[in-house]
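Entry 14. Ran structure prediction on the chain below.
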Amino acid sequence: MNLAQFQEYCLSLPGVTEEFPFGEETLVYKVAGKIFALSGIGNFETVNLKCDPDEAVELRERYEGVTPGYHMNKKHWNTVDVHSGIPNKLRLEWIRKSYNLVVASLPKKEREKLGQ
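Output, structure tokens:
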């Protein structure tokens, strides 16, 4: 996965915005104002993704390229090394799961706006 593929997939999800709230080097994706994915833009090496706490631990144990979320709540976020050999299909699935976790936490009106 490269930066363009990451951007394209994130922006293909309903209601997603691309922002730079932490400076011009950190690319952030939000749905309804809540972060679900972020990465460095100048140095696309890792992606931070929200994750169910139990699944987060399981993924860290199973994949060497998955570690506790860098600069994030370690219980709810994983950092995924984009050069670790994890199949793109799996990474895309994790991005979608991150998005879905955030959407599930939104008020009903917001979910309805997104078609959920």
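The CA atoms of residues 52 and 76 lie 6 Å apart. Will compare against last week's run tomorrow.
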